[in-house]
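PROTOCOL LOG
Step 1. Enter all chains and additional molecules of the complex.
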Amino acid sequence: QVQLQESGPGLVKPSQTLSLTCTVSGDSISNGNYYWGWIRQPAGKGLEWIGRIYSSGGTNYNPSLKSRVTISLDTSKNQFSLNLTSVTAADTAVYYCARGLFTPRLDYWGQGTLVTVSS
Amino acid sequence: QSALTQPASVSGSPGQSITISCTGTTSDIGSYNYVSWYQQYPGKAPKLMIYDVSNRPSGVSNRFSGSKSGNTASLTISGLQAEDEADYYCSSYTSSSTLEVFGGGTKLTVL
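Step 2. Run joint prediction.
Step 3. Record the structure below.
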């Protein structure tokens, strides 16, 4: 059974960097049949793609966040990570990691982690 | 503003059927059969219910079905049950972006 688990600080100060890690079990992030993504959801609002990374290390980012986002793989730990710089209150949201397939769909999701940007 | 348009809410009584629409453009739904639907309960992660317009993942009830006509995709839930009360999101491949687009979500209320 594939499981994903987000981890990281729940509170980040404005202008600082939000850093989250997704630990994957039951599958290898080196598996070329999948990609690994980050999606966020502000309270009471809809889902928003942040970006994704392929086993090759290639990435796709949301154009509205591209200048601030980096997604990376750590194959030794079977984890992938999200860094979002220069955060503001608008970045407060539940952040989900997920596994995706190439006829695009997200078949496994983490439980989500709330990140609040506040001083 | 979301790239795909969904009604904010729909409702139905137990046993009835409801349909949730998801309207896009010729850059997404109208040209590609890569529409997926997700169910989300409050405080929980989304769950994949339909992919490639009309395919159900293993374990998803056959009361859930998907279809597409032109630029609009639809999710139909038949034999509505109280446990179906949730938010539903559509998503589609789009030629306008390297990432898929989501709809704004629809809150389903079972009366």
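Step 4. Note key features.
Chain A touches chain B at residues 46-49, 51-52, 60-63, 96, 103-107, 109-112 (CB under 8 Å).
Chain A is about 0% helix and 55% strand.
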